[in-house]
Amino acid sequence: MTPRPDLACPYPTHARADSRPAWLGHSLGWLAGVAALSVLAGCASAPSQAPAVAWPKEAAPSAAPCPEGVPAGARCLRGQDSATSHYLILMPEKWSGVLVVHAHGGPNLGAPQASRANEDIKRWAITVQLGHAWAGSVFRQGGFAVTTAAEDTERVRRIFIDHVAQPRRTLLHGQSWGAMVATRAAELFPASWEGILLTSGVVAGPATYDFRLDLRAIYQHLCGNHPKPDDPAYPVWMGLPPDSKLTSAELGARVDECLGLRRPAAQRSAEQARKIRTIVDVVRIPENSIQGHLNWGTFTLRDVVQRTGGRSPFGNEGVRYSGSPDDAALNAGVVRVKADPQAAAQFKADTDHAGRLRVPVLTTHGIGDSTVFVEGSDTLRSRMQAAGNGARLVQTFVDSREHSYLGDAIYPPLFEALLRWVEQGDKPTPAGIAQRCRTMPGANVAECKFVPDYVARPLATRIPVR
Q1: In the prediction, which pLDDT does 54 show?
Q2: Is 147 exposed, middle or buried (0-12, 13-18, 19+ CB in 10 A)?
Q3: Class of the 5-10+55-203+357-461 domain?
Q4: Assuming Cys at both sites, which of 304, 339, 351, 410 could form a disulfide with 315, CB separation 3.0 to 4.6 Å?
Q5: Residue 300 DSSP symbol
Q6: Which pLDDT value is given to residue 53?
Q7: Residue ranges, the chain, pLDDT below 70
Q8: Prior bond to 227 cis, omega within 30?
């Protein structure tokens, strides 16, 4: 099949001969053969290159026992790169020739732990089951550091190529916060990736997190115990003072005192029920996500503010909240925060993308995801269109409230469709992916909950613009 001209030839012209094992043909039988690759070699243009970086020579990884949940027969390699990032690489027993570089969700606060990669591959073992190699960095910095995580993602790709094998195709997979890392890596190192898969992704930049400041401000207005009157005074935009010893368990106790979240609804007071309903209706999050978002707006927000010089990149100045029993009283009583322009610019520079994604991009998102709102998908679409890359994006959506993992049936047709797009220029459709989910060998049809006709609404319909 002739590649689509609107892809601007994102594929490399040095592709190797097809070395796929025979077993892979049952699930990926449509992949292009050597003849198709020779057609792709005729492309005249290529993505722009990232600025030259003096990458240090990396030590080879070491063979290591595989963590729990890894498919039988896989070979595991571990190491720590020159920037101190731990990483894990898996080679399946029968390799498709495809490398999937994984950018994990989070971010995790505190010192990075090598064991984080064990959690990631256990969740994403489906990648290796499909015959693809998997490489994941733990990232050198704990906390909200996106650009360095993007660099670590590129570094583990280089380690794989230099010390493990030369992949036939290289895909970048960003999950949740890792999608923020992946979009950053895609713009910093555009020649490194031939296709991008973003799942449950943070793809709308800093505006993704505005509602968590809203939650802190509204919670404090309703509850007045975070901070408490006898705590050392600090503004809510700070998250917590740098030296605060407050733990997540202690925060949970404060929230339970005010809202009764740990109790059955029948055991809550009328006042607690009213406050919960106000948060749910105004911030537009389900009751069971309040505590998690408050944790982010406390501990992760503190990390963000410390990285932006003790200034707030978020604000709620001019936002009018609605949905409460008394909106006038709510808007009059909620503390107002003005975002610091320098902090906002610094945070944006580290975390955001401009839609300059020059290879096929395929996404999926649970429609009811309350951790990362599905409406952020509209921002990705708008930015890629504005950058002239709209034809390189296909978005799919799933009837699910899950965030971290949407089910084993969801990801194989996505990887398959993305590879076909990369290999043959055959752009997928949401309907085609939904249909393929139901017909793949061994598929659990009950899990195939793609909603082909769904279109994400603008983020501003979920989070007030400021």
Answers
A1: 79
A2: middle
A3: alpha beta
A4: 339
A5: I
A6: 67
A7: 1-53
A8: yes
